Amino acid sequence: MVYNTPERGDINNITLQDIERYKFALNYVKDKRVLDIACGTGYGSAMLLLECKAKEVFGVDIDKNTILNNRQ
After folding, report:
1. Is this model's pTM higher than 0.90 or not?
2. More confidently predicted of 14 and 16
């Protein structure tokens, strides 16, 4: 099942609005465990972990193919 959202399965389709939501969260996650629901390709989860120094980040998405195709 593929959902029709801007980023779904294609990291090149990330919108400014998507990025702004994660930038807002950056101020609250340092040294915390974070659950990123509907993480899509996982770019935002990576931002929270790498840029904000979250303790742990767990990304969850309903679209299995998006998760599997964007693992690093």
Report:
1. no
2. 16
